[in-house]
Each structure stands twice: as structure tokens, then as C-alpha cells.
Write a structure and sequence with these properties.
The structure is a homodimer.
Chain A (H helix, E strand, L loop, with lengths): L3 H15 L4 H8 L3 H8 L7 H11 L3 H16 L21 H5 L2 H5 L1
């Protein structure tokens, strides 16, 4: 099960890293301790609504947008694993199945 | 400021009421106390990620869908108040401004 606080923490951390900011800087702007922000980002601690709003303000992101990103991550985590889409090097693809005609001329078939 | 826990509680309550279920029934299915669920619905208590997931399961709703609904509510709450859209009884609409021609024939204009 993918937990809300883990996905929320990951989204908050991504926003901070995209801005090349330190935990210390964002924590100071949000008025929370560095340890608290670190625990929230790692999904260890549940952020209270007030402090989550303060962290979003410090990051310059809107809370509802963060929630939509978290929802997307949870949707993806819930979905069944899908086959990869896109280019796959031929060295990684399994050898094609032998065509029927080739099977018919296999040693066993010849022996029959 | 519209708080996450308040909007979240309102969304959870709406889902429960749409299903005509009692607090007692949903709390029992979610394995939480009736008082806890009531406080979460009223936005008094922050739901932990685990218990929020359990409440969503008990309601038969997906957490990411709930989050999107909460995000929508927060977007709306953030937005500036908009003019009403739709039918407005004529008794509620202000009297139309007098057209320019009518202004020209007002008593003041006639006196000029």
C-alpha cells in the first residue's frame, strides 16, 4: 500500500530539489524545524494542515496542485504494472518464436 | 485560509452521506472509533495516512479520487468570488441603467 504521507513527502522534496534549495532554507521560510521538514519529506511524519500550508508557501507552490500531484502518484502506484512502452534494444528482446514451418522441420518432426 | 483537514473531512462526510450511511457503520468498517471519524469529518483532527486509507476503503472510494476532490474544493476556495452563473430571478436583478436617449430627455436636460 502506498501511503499518503510518503507520496506527499516525495512531491514536496521534488519541488524543493527542482528549486535547488536546501532543507534549511525551506524550513526557515516555512517556520518549521529542519528535522520536521526532513521527516515530512521522508514520509516519516504526518504534516499538520497548518504546517503543510506553510511548507507549500515556502516552496511557492499551491497546496491543491501538490495534492493533484500526490493523487497522480497514488493512481500510478495503484495501477497494475504495465509493459514498457517505447524503444527496447533488440539485445534485450527475447528471440522470436520459431515459425510453424520451422517447427514442422524440427528434428523430432523429421524423426516422426 | 481553507485548511486541508477541513476540506478532506467535508469530502469524506459527503461520500458517507451520499451512501446514506451512519458514522457508526463507516467507523466500524474502517476500524476506527466513532469519535475519531466524527472529528476527522468535522476537520478537527488530522487523519493519519493509515486511518485515512482505512476510511476510504470503508467508504469504497479511492484515496487519490478523494484527494482530487479535496484539491478541487481548495482551488475553488482560493479563487476569487465569481459572479453567479445561471438563472437569476428578475426580481433580484438591479433595474437596468437608463439608456443615453432617456438621460438626454431627463428633467434636468429639458430644463437646460
Amino acid at each position: 500500500m502506498s501511503l499518503l504521507r510518503r507520496e506527499l513527502g516525495a512531491v514536496l522534496r521534488r519541488h524543493r530539489e527542482e528549486q535547488s534549495r536546501t532543507l534549511r532554507s525551506v524550513a526557515a521560510d516555512a517556520g518549521v524545524s529542519l528535522g520536521y521538514l526532513s521527516e515530512v519529506e521522508r514520509g516519516v511524519k504526518e504534516a499538520s494542515s497548518e504546517l503543510l500550508a506553510a511548507i507549500c508557501r515556502a516552496l511557492g507552490v499551491r497546496l491543491p496542485e501538490v495534492l493533484v500531484e500526490v493523487a497522480d502518484a497514488l493512481f500510478l502506484a495503484e495501477a497494475a504494472p504495465l509493459a514498457p512502452v517505447g524503444f527496447v534494444p533488440s539485445s534485450l528482446t527475447p528471440a522470436p518464436a520459431a515459425p510453424l514451418a520451422a517447427s514442422a522441420s524440427s528434428p523430432a518432426a523429421v524423426a516422426a
